Amino acid sequence: MEKMRLLCLPYAGGSAASIYLSWKRKLKEKIEVLPLELAGRGKRLREPLCTSVNEMVDDLIQKSLPVLQDDSRPYAIFGHSMGGLLAYELCNKIQELGLPAPTCLIVSGFHPPDKKIEGNLHQLPLDEFAEVIKKSGNVPPSIFEDRDLYNLFIPILHADYKLVFSYQYKPKATVLNTDLYAFTGKEDYKVYHQRKEWMIHTIGKFQDFVFEGGHFFIRQSEEQVLEKIEEILSTEKPMDKSLPLEKVR
C-alpha cells in the first residue's frame, strides 16, 4: 500500500525543511512528509519574500503542482501557526482550481481565519520588533547572540508578521468540502478558546484536539501530535469528486 503524503507548512520565520525534519524520520514508515518551503528561506533563501497571503498561496500552488496534480496517491495538508492560515487558504485555492483535493486539512496553533488579529507588533521598527520577540521567549536566544543569524532570521520573521497581521479574511464562494481538524496547545489561550469556531469553515467532518503545551506544543508534545496525525490519516479516504460544493449563504 502506498504511503499517504502530508504537505507541511511552517510557522512564521521558519524553514519547513528544518521544522519538519524529525517528522520525516519518525513518520517515514507510514507517511511521506513533504515540507513546503516558502520563498526567502531554506533552499529558497535567495528568492524575494512574499508580501501577502494570496501571493504566498499562489507561489505554493506553482511549486506544488507536481504533487497536487498527481491523483494516484492521496495527500493531506498540515500547517502550524502562520502555516495553519496558509494551509487553509491553500486548501481553498486547490478547491477553487479544481485540483485533486486533500483527504483532510489539519490547522494547528492558529485561530479561525475570520478572527482578526489585534495589535501593532508588525508595525514596529525592526530592532524594536526584535526586542519584543526576544522577551516573548518563543525564539531561541542564539538568534540574538549571533549577528549573522539575527540579520538573516529577524527580517524574515518581521515580514511574516506583517503578512499575517495584514491578512483580510474574505468569505469564500464555496465552503471547503475537506475534513478539517484543529490542533491546539492547552496553554495557547487565545487560540484554545476559539478552536471550535473552525467548524464553520468546512462542510466536511470537524474535530479538535488539545495537547499539552503552549503555542509551540508541536515541539513540546511532538510524539502525541505525530500519533494523532497517524491516527487521523489512517482513517481518511480520498474525497469523492462527485460531491457538490456548497455555496456560502
UniProtKB/TrEMBL annotation:
Location of the Thioesterase domain: 5-232
GO process annotations (BP): lipid biosynthetic process
Superkingdom assignment: Bacteria
InterPro entries named among the record's database cross-references: AB_hydrolase_fold, TEII, Thioesterase
Coiled coil regions, renumbered to chain: none
Similarity-based family: Belongs to the thioesterase family.
UniProt name for this protein: Thioesterase
